[in-house]
Amino acid sequence: MKTVTMRSGSVLPALGQGTWNMGEDPARRQAEIGALQLGMDLGMGLIDTAEMYGEGGAEQVVGAAIAGRREQAFIVSKVYPHNADKRGVRAACERSLQRLNTDRIDLYLLHWRGAVPLSETLDAFGALKKEGKILDFGVSNFDLGDMLEAEALPGGRAIAANQVLFNLVKRGIEWDLLPWSRKQGMPVMAYSPLESAGPERQALLTHPALVAVAQRHGCTPGQIALAWLLRQDGVVAIPKAADPAHVRENRAALDVVLSAFDLEDLDRAFPPPRKRQALAMR
């Protein structure tokens, strides 16, 4: 498994598993648990979740999946912005720990920026880290301006990662945020690496250029889209999969090696940004 190192020195898998929409339907619970466990068997021990997902339901699914094998897992969870004050972060973290059935969260993120001052959230994160309830902390959906502001605050240099929307279609961070993050030694976690479910994902996975590259490699368009992300330094991809075939397909993307010819074709079909863009969010 390819790994990425945070500036704290902690190492995480470059390919993980997302849990958005998990924990919402009891009929799918066992399948979701099984999918996460299979991913762990295949080396995808990084599991990304949030208190928002299923209002805690996804964290409960993760807790069941990692039972008896906590040491194989790297758990990422996220706190709501409205819970991001000093007292709220602590209470939210305790609830997440209980749902996850663990004594620590490996990486705890502010889900997106809200009304609570960043300084207060960073103070709360720092206190939780000192107590060992979280091992590292970071942010999500922060653009470069947000990152520069946060970095200048006390505790800001301890921000370990930033999770943002990044894929072949949404490449805006390549203009400024991604180069800056690499310079800082701060991994970027790419959520929705295959776009969200529905028309956007369908448009990506059926794009003629992506299909053509996939045919050259004898793999799926989704694997090419993941391989494009995974080849980049400092980038972690967290696709969601709830069935065994999809989990195995995602893992196999690590074995795809894109050529310069492939990359040129993909750049023509999905051009990199030519100017600064507003941060894409979902």
Automatic annotation (TrEMBL):
Family annotation (Pfam families): Aldo_ket_red
Domain NADP-dependent oxidoreductase: 15-268
Coiled-coil stretches noted in the UniProt entry, renumbered to this chain: none
Protein name as annotated: Aldo/keto reductase
InterPro entries with a match to the protein in the record: AKR (IPR020471), NAD(P)_OxRdtase_dom_sf (IPR036812), NADP_OxRdtase_dom (IPR023210)
